[in-house]
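Fold this sequence, please.
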Amino acid sequence: MARHTVRVFGEAGLPPEGMERDDILATEIPVALVFNGISHAVMMATPEALDDFALGFALSEGILDRAEDCRGISVHAADGSAAQLPPGVPGVEVHLDISTRCFERLRHRRRSMAGRTGCGVCGVESFAALDLAPERLPARDWIERVDLALVLQAFSQLGARQVHNAQAGALHAAAWAGLDGQLAAVCEDVGRHNALDKLIGHLARAGRLGEPGFVLMSSRGSHELVRKCARVGLGALATISAPTATGVQVAELAGLRLWGLCRAPRGVLYAPGALQQR
């Protein structure tokens, strides 16, 4: 969080010329993700739980196959002058030591992408790199228990757990709930993708990615969020806003249960998930 002096207008009791106040703003800084000494991506992120963020990103983007492929994570302040950052803008490097197998695959992917014709979609360098058809999730015997009542029970707790957003009003949340409807973890970030990656990293560290439960997001259900969940084996996602058409298509292809527009007393089931045959 950062403090900034602002001038507020239009509140009851304020003079026409407004009034100066201190405001709290969410912080976003450039975060470089460095794999075995090679910088792979720079993301704008809220500088909290960056080790979880880096691990979650590596898993959800297919750089790592499992958490054990990461042998160590360290966080370092970047050299602002060397990185050509503007004065007052800090930067962070997160270094991940990953297995030789995963690193060689990453190097091959980077070489392959460098030679393709760019399509200009979502910052990737080819249509194939969008990866819109993730491997199908296995059927779960519990998936239908993620019903409207359970989803709304979990969402009813989310606002109180968004501590940073209550102060700054500019952060997304990704949360994990079990089949009891109780929130077990909440991660916040200025970016919805970052918040989800932080949650994935947190669950991976705790060995909980395979547990029954579902993800809640304070955002729309975009295809990127669906794809990230499916890639790491999370079987259900519920979002407070509507999904995109592509998000629903990816959920159907992946067998992911997708709820959207989850605002009590209503919710919409857009994709049922991979159901076990009876």
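The radius of gyration is 20 Å. The CA atoms of residues 78 and 93 lie 6 Å apart.
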